């Protein structure tokens, strides 16, 4: 359990106090049986997509005035913060080999798993999630350029999405459409090789 707690804390950017108070100490946490915000969950996936390296998430890239002049450039600010943090070397949250294995597994969720409807038409990975009694559905995924998290549900207790409304059927397609539009002007890229792992085809049987 301690190993799982440590991984969660690193990926979700929890401090020691949050690690103790927000994550229950039981075996089911390996299945994700505790609450985090969509923002926190998307941050964790962004670390994986980035080869296990530190990320600083942001939602708005920049703000322009009516004349097209940039008033605020959050993307540039984040790049400067990361450059400052990495002066003494890259901040590695998880090992590159671990990140590469996770990327490979999460890509298969889209290529042959529960999120086939999320396919944005370029290399991508991600994961669906549906909570008990169809209360919540989410999909968090990434391409080499962008990580996005999407949640569907009601903010009032007791309201469900409806029987059979799983994330693969309702959240994944929306994510795929959004990513196709968001990256329509971006070049199609494949994921970097973050560690010296060999690839091999394996018979399905």
- Spatial order of the strands forming the largest sheet: 3-4-5
Tally of strands: 5
Oligomer: single chain
Number of helices: 6
Shape category:
globular
What's the story with the biggest beta sheet? 3 strands, antiparallel
Helix and strand string, N-terminal first? HHHEEHHEEEH
Tell me what portion of residues adopts beta-strand conformation: 5-15%
Sequence stretches where pLDDT stays below 50 over 5 or more residues: none
How much helix is in the residues?
A: 25-40%
| Main structural class | alpha+beta
| Rg of Cα set | 18 Å
What separation lies between the terminal Cα atoms? 33 Å
Mean pLDDT: 91
Describe what this molecule looks like in 3D.
Helices cover 37% and strands 13% of the residues. The chain has a three-stranded antiparallel sheet with strand order 3-4-5, with helices on both faces. A two-stranded antiparallel ribbon has the order 1-2. The radius of gyration is 18 Å and the shape is globular. 25% of the residues are buried. β4 (136-142) and β5 (147-153) form a beta hairpin. The protein is of the alpha+beta class and 205 residues long. The protein is built from six helices and five strands; from the N terminus they run αααββααβββα.
